[in-house]
Backbone:
């Protein structure tokens, strides 16, 4: 199983830059880049923080899919 | 990445100068039955100078980037991703250093039983080898941190 995320799409839809989103959730811009590329799977805490910052449900941001 | 290069690059220089200090101190100093003489050469002063300079560099870096914690050094992390990078880097670096330490033990044993190796040469080789191991630790840490920073 692989964790897919829609962070980039949701972020762009809200007109946020990667740096702005990073600042909102208290991580580095590099972490947002890595997350959007799918290289890094965030912790549950960061996942919830991202959902809160983007004003969406966690399910709208993350989904499991078969590899 | 910058904080890791500064910390471990600085540590590597520190280990190099400390190794040179140890070798120089051993060559210059005498402990005999009739006299005891400790003498310090330029490496000792360079080492002390570097410790002061490195301390200032670390402090300046801490002021620039609060995530670089003076007490944590190379384990400083700005967020959970960097904590994961640090953890994996430490794991891999430990494997490399322990493997090299085992090899060093074996080489020490071989040199120790070789009658052609003079006692002084043996001490010089051992100090240089342990110093080199510490420097390899620093370089390996930077390399693995760089690797995981690109992968994660």
Residues:
């Amino acid at each position: 199983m692989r964790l897919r995320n829609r962070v980039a799409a949701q972020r762009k839809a809200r007109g946020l830059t990667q740096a702005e989103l990073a600042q909102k959730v208290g991580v580095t811009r590099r972490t947002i880049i890595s997350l959007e590329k799918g290289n890094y799977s965030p912790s549950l805490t960061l996942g919830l923080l991202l959902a809160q910052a983007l004003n969406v449900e966690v399910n709208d941001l993350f989904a499991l899919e078969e590899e | 990445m910058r904080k890791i290069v500064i910390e471990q690059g600085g540590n590597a220089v520190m280990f190099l100068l400390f190794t040179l200090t140890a070798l120089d101190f051993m060559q210059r100093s005498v402990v005999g039955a009739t006299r005891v003489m400790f003498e310090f050469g330029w490496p000792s002063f360079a080492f002390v100078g570097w410790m002061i300079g490195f301390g200032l560099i670390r402090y300046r870096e801490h002021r620039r980037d609060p995530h670089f914690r003076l007490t944590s050094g190379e384990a400083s992390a700005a967020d959970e991703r960097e904590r994961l990078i640090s953890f994996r880097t430490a794991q891999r670096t430990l494997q490399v250093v322990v493997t090299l330490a085992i090899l060093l033990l074996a080489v020490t044993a071989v040199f120790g039983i070789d009658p052609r190796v003079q006692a002084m040469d043996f001490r010089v080789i051992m100090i240089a080898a342990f110093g080199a191991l510490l420097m390899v630790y620093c370089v390996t840490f930077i390399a693995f941190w760089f690797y995981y920073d690109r992968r994660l």
